[in-house]
Design goal:
Structural class of chain B: alpha+beta
Largest interface: A-B, 24 and 30 residues
Strand content of chain B: 15-25%
Number of helices of chain B: 17
Number of strands of chain B: 21
Structural class of chain A: alpha+beta
Helix content of chain B: 40-55%
Oligomer: heterodimer
Number of helices of chain A: 4
């Protein structure tokens, strides 16, 4: 990969794993409740197979995230900002590389959930007219600086828009 | 100038309500006139209530809407109990659209929409006298930006295109409008079944009668199709002046539309397979105005059955910077394999339903052929050029689309590659144009080696665009200081009093 590109924080793996674990546990609880209801209230019996299938998938998903997807996500995500452009490379199977001119960035946002705050990482989100680009799981201080930088650069608007 | 609705609008609203609920009223109040059941009673009450509420809303709109066209902008006051006030600065207005249905024309009025770049800023007035329409148009279109040449010669609108009878006939065929006969004929048939009229189950319908009926239906189909097409395109006109392009459409009910040339982001040339057979093309302007709102009218698409040569000529005249040129690049030959390597997922999906009913196997077969034909065509059609002057890309299988735009107009570019694509060293590239909603174009399976070249090309856009001086550092500070000073002066004035 191009060496000018920056990597996200290595804490990304842990935070991502933890987030995934929590949502998986909640998911499993919901499916178990639904499974129970299916028995209890005599819903269509084929629903049982769907709930069991979903539970199995969610359980398999946890080690998958820990062993495969999180480390690969950390390894493959790269970003770069220059005075004029924001570059983001990401993807494990399908690679994407986006280039956004700074002048087309309309707003910039810093996001931090509870787990992210605990680990001191944050997500920077730059919105364009089209959609938004996120740089997730970077160190809080870096994120703040990045937000200020992008905000400063994005303030310049082009004539003839 | 202050605008208030004329009281004639009340009449207009009543006629409109009756027209739009005609079938309902007919069924409930006329056909079931003798039906005295309780259910019918409540249905009537309910329907009458709904219609009345709608009418009351219209009444409030009629009496309590006031629009002031001031020098600096438009103020819109609405509402009876909860009043609201809206201000739209004059230089925000981009386009004007008008529309006159048959009912509008009965009252000598039109519906007008003053469009701004953002959907929320649009001002729509349902019922405006034609004289006032002209004033509003003049008000909206005459505004001049500081940096642009304000000198605009009035009345040097040149007419660029009006369809000939031959064009309209082609349009009638290509629009399949004659198919409108099918539901009508079906209804008529089920209502006046011949066996009911003749009143005998075993009397066979004579052959001549069958042929006559089919013949009649055929003629009716042609007439209806022609009428529909003529109504849309008989008085169709594209014209322009230095600043704007104007489209006028409709015969019995009319619409007009105008777009500022400077606001056009891209031009799209569309051609479906049957348009290709007829050698006609649709031109579409991608602009920042909220044109997509009127999707049933499709008025930002020009006369959809322009002979292809004429279409190119038109763009050359209107927006020479968006004229089509021959393209330098094609899909990568390495991607030829991918046509066959990509799994036909949709076919498999449809075929799975075959387990339930054998008919789906046939459907899957059709889908299979369709998939591969459009894949091969898509590979053949793909072509593009990226340079300083223009961005041009052609894509699509059975219906082909060519977009012509400029580098500074692109909101972003994106490269993607799947595992399969990486195996043969190709990638997809997509770019996005500003519009409402945004307009995105994808080029599938182009050579991966082009990536560096394309990136540099896009990065060089900075040489081309000019930064708005009002957003630069110094300018911002100046504006801030000026605002602060005026605020202070005002405060002192208030204190002095």
């Amino acid at each position: 990969m191009d060496d000018n590109y920056l990597q996200i924080s290595p804490k990304a793996i842990k935070v991502r794993n933890l987030n995934d674990l929590i949502s998986s546990v909640i998911g499993i609880i919901v499916f178990v409740v639904l499974l129970f209801c299916t028995y209890k209230f005599n819903w269509w019996s084929w629903l049982e197979y769907i709930w069991i299938g979903l539970i199995v998938l969610t359980i398999i998903g946890i080690p998958w995230t820990y062993i495969v997807s999180s480390p690969l996500f950390y390894k493959t995500f790269r970003y770069k900002i220059t005075d004029d452009f924001l570059y983001i490379k990401s993807g494990i199977w399908n690679l994407t590389e986006v280039v956004v001119p700074m002048a087309k960035v309309q707003s910039i946002e810093l996001k931090q959930g509870a787990i992210m705050r605990k680990y001191g990482v944050a997500t920077v989100r730059a919105s364009t007219m089209n959609d938004h680009q996120e740089i997730p799981y970077i160190e809080s201080e870096v994120a703040q600086k990045l937000r200020d930088d992008i905000a400063k650069l994005a303030r310049l608007k082009e004539l003839d828009e | 100038m202050t605008f208030k609705y004329s009281y004639l609008k009340i009449m207009f609203d009543i006629v409109s309500v009756v027209k739009s609920n005609f079938v309902l009223i007919l069924i409930i109040f006329v056909i079931n006139f003798n039906n005295d059941s309780t259910v019918m009673f409540w249905v009537r009450i309910f329907a009458a209530g709904l219609i009345l509420i709608g009418l009351l809303n219209d009444l409030v709109e009629t009496f309590f809407t006031r629009v002031e066209f001031a020098l600096d902008g438009v103020r819109v006051y609405t509402g009876m109990f909860s009043k609201s006030e809206r201000f739209i600065p004059r230089d925000k207005f981009e386009n004007v659209q008008t529309e006159a249905t048959m009912i509008h024309r009965l009252f000598g009025a039109q519906k007008i929409t003053l469009e701004t770049g953002e959907a929320t800023g649009d001002v729509t007035l349902q019922f405006v006298k034609t004289g006032e329409i002209e004033k509003m148009k003049a008000y909206t279109l005459a505004h001049h930006h500081e940096n642009e040449i304000a000198i605009k010669q009035e009345a040097d609108k040149t007419t660029l295109f009006t369809p000939t009878i031959k064009d309209i006939l082609k349009a009638a065929i290509a629009s399949f409008s004659f198919l409108a006969i099918i539901p009508i004929a079906w209804n008529a048939w089920s209502d006046f079944r011949l066996d009911k009229v003749v009143d005998a189950d075993n009397v066979q319908m004579p052959l001549w009668l069958t042929l006559l009926l089919i013949g009649l239906a055929f003629i009716a189909a042609l007439v209806i199709g022609l009428l529909k097409t003529f109504n849309s395109y008989y008085k169709y006109k594209i014209s322009m002046d230095n600043e704007r392009i104007y489209v006028q459409k409709g015969w019995l009910s009319t619409q007009t539309f105008s777009v500022r040339k400077a606001k056009v982001q891209a031009v799209v040339y569309k051609q479906s397979w049957y348009q290709k057979l007829l050698r006609v093309t649709t031109i579409k302007l991608i602009s920042t105005g909220e044109v997509a709102e009127l999707k049933d009218l499709q008025i930002n698409e020009f006369f959809p059955y322009l002979p292809t040569a004429k279409a190119d000529e038109l763009v050359c005249q209107m927006l020479p910077q968006f004229a089509r040129q021959t393209m330098t690049h094609r899909a990568s030959p390495k991607a030829k394999k991918l046509i066959w390597l990509r799994p036909p997922l949709f076919t498999v999906f449809v075929a799975l339903f075959g387990l339930w009913h054998w008919g789906f196997y046939i459907a899957a077969g059709i889908v299979f052929i369709f998939t591969y034909v459009s894949r091969i065509l898509a590979y053949k059609n793909l072509a593009f050029t990226f340079d300083e002057q223009l961005v041009q890309a052609r894509s699509g299988g059975l219906s082909v689309e060519t977009i012509v735009t400029k580098r500074p107009r692109l909101l972003e570019i994106e490269f993607t590659s799947s595992i399969l694509q990486r195996k043969v060293n190709v990638m997809s590239m997509s770019f996005v144009n500003r519009a409402q909603p945004v307009y995105s174009t994808e080029l599938q399976d182009i050579d991966e080696q082009l990536k560096g070249e394309l990136l540099t090309w896009f990065e060089q856009r900075v040489d081309e665009v000019k930064i708005d001086p009002r957003t630069q550092d110094g300018a911002l500070k100046k504006v801030a200081i000026r605002n602060l000073l005026t605020a202070l002066i005002r405060k002192r004035e208030v204190a002095d009093r």
